Amino acid sequence: MARQVKRAFRYRFYPTDGQAAELSRTFGCVRLVYNKALEERTRAWYGEQRRVSYVESSAMLTGWKKTEGLAFLTEVSSVPLQQALRHLQTAFTSFFAKRAEYPRYKSRKRSRASAEYTRSAFTWREGELTLAKMSGPLDIRWSRPLPGGASPSTVTVSRDAAGRWFVSLLCEDTPAPVPATANTVGVDAGVTSLVTLSTGEKIANPRYERRDRVRLARAQRELSRKAKGSANREKARRKVARVHARIADRRRDFLHKLTTRLVRENQTVVIEDLTVRNLLKNGRLARAISDAAWTELRFMLEYKCAWYGRELVVIDRWFPSSRLCGACGTVREKLPLNVRTWTCDCGAVHDRDVNAARTILAAGLAAAACGDGVRPQRESSRTGQSSMKQEPQRATAGTPRLQAGEEVKLWSPRRRPGP
């Protein structure tokens, strides 16, 4: 059964000179308020062993506006500044819950310039969006329509490194239901083949970064020759950013099409819980793994399965999917990466990736049906947990359904004392 979800619809827009100047000032003020609040919270903790709440940070913001050096904070809308403090509070909450690292300062060069507006800071009328402190609406390119009768609850304006302006409208939406199906699929992620399906199909990795590597290297060489602080260096930096944006946009478009197809064609999708952060430590494969964007692939599968009432099962990262014979259940002791086809003692000949996808599917279906224990030969997790975890996500349940005593850990943040 379809349910209402919050979806963000992102569009490109072209501001006037006045709007661009106003938004640039807002971005700078948002970054300043976030960094000053983070500095105060860190100082209070290390100096006084005291935690600073959002309410106290908001009171500090009021005081900053009354000082001579920060009086310019009153020239921009107050809502994005308050939202910056709320985002900082969320960052600390995630840190305390051990879901993320300690909050970091926002950099003028490395951080994405953005500002968030709530209902009180923008006007939405007849398909036109007007932000606070602006006299006219934004010139938005409506590449796709908003849901019928939808009214945005939050608007986020951003500017990427390539100088492109985007506006994201958060709306309530009911995803169109997809027909139920009995199909199931196991997905094995790779580098040569981006994914290999349990059906035997291999989907090639488009390698967008490799395709534009020569263009990127040329743009970076030109950037290195420009004098720091010059206008020509800024032009060269924008050129490098445009190449990166082209790579990212094409990769994201491909992943959207792939994940939508998998979700529409299958009722249950089974994947592995890969630790991409650890895999990136391999110097030979780091660039190829980054280009494959496995984390983004999994993220898309998670929310699309939740939207369309599909089930996503994630098995443990230590499950020997490639070394497990799908015919007899024997686990091969070693299987180097350069071995793409191997023969089991039972006589079965396996394509490494196809066999991995099929054993992933079998393990995931068994875990979803009756819990851990598909094959007695399976290795246990090095962490001492069960050798399989599942994270099924349904349209009727907003939280993962776990087996008794199991715990899902998407990442292991480095712990650091803080406020």
Keywords for this entry:
419 residues, alpha+beta, 2 domains, 5-stranded antiparallel sheet, 5-stranded mixed sheet, 10 helices, globular, disordered C terminus, zinc
How do the strands line up in the largest sheet?
2-6-7-1-5
- Describe the oligomeric state of these chains in a short phrase: single chain
Helix tally? Answer: 10
Helix fraction, binned, reads 25-40%
Q: Helices and strands, in N-to-C order?
A: EHHHEEEEEEEEEHHHEHHHEEEH
Mean pLDDT: 85
What coarse outline follows from CA principal-axis ratios? Answer: globular
Number of β-strand runs: 14
Spans of at least 5 consecutive residues with low confidence: 373-419
Profile the largest sheet: 5 strands, antiparallel
Quote the beta fraction.
15-25%
N- to C-terminal distance = 43 Å
Radius of gyration: 25 Å
Count of separate structural domains:
2
InterPro entries: Cas12f1-like_TNB (IPR010095), RNA-guided_DNA_endo/Transpos (IPR051399), Transposase (IPR001959), Transposase_put_HTH (IPR021027)
Keywords: DNA recombination, DNA-binding, Metal-binding, Transposition, Zinc
GO molecular function: DNA binding; metal ion binding
Family: In the C-terminal section; belongs to the transposase 35 family.
